[in-house]
Amino acid sequence: MQEIQSGTVTVAAGLQGDHKGTKFPNRQITVLAVEAWREAARDAGEPDLAWTVRRANFLVEGVHLPRAAGGVLRIGEVLLEVTSQTVPCKRMDDALTGLRKALHPDWRGGITCRVLEGGQVTLGDPVEVLVSPPQRVIRLP
Predict the structure, then answer these.
(1) C-alpha span between 9 and 130 (Å, rounded)
(2) Burial 63-92 (b: 16+ CB within 10 A, else e)
(3) What is the percentage of the chain residues whose pLDDT exceeds 90?
(4) pTM over 0.70
(5) If DSSP codes are grouped into helix, strand and coil, which group holds residue 30?
(6) 114: which DSSP letter?
(7) Phi-psi map region of 59: left, alpha, beta (phi>0 left; psi -120 to 50 alpha)
(8) Per residue in 52-93, pLDDT tens?
(9) Smallest Cα–Cα separation from 132: which of 87, 62, 65?
(10) What mean pLDDT, rounded, does the chain reach?
(11) Domain residue spans in the chain?
């Protein structure tokens, strides 16, 4: 995974250079909150684990990300709609045993989004949550 300082996001393809945006229209962009990442990494026993292990498109700090489909946020010029939480895959445990489980609670794994409006995103751009619907919690017996 390569970190970049700026990038172009389009409605058609998500983040330019990321092949997943074209293949999965409801998963064009993934966003991870640094606070949630640190909690999960700490709980898995490696508090200084690099966030790039998560393979998210964007890392944000100081923002309470929406935890329900239909949430809307703006990053720089880009407008995103939350479609779901980013479900941790097997690669997380390949990187650190227990990380997958540590990412599951409270949407710690981040959010997946579709692009409503494309544009440029640059490191340090403001992040604003515009719509944050209530999280639905289903408790199984």
Answers:
(1) 19
(2) bebbbbbebbbbbbebbbbbbebbebeeeb
(3) 69
(4) yes
(5) strand
(6) E
(7) beta
(8) 889 899 999 999 999 999 999 999 999 999 999 999 888 888
(9) 65
(10) 91
(11) 6-131
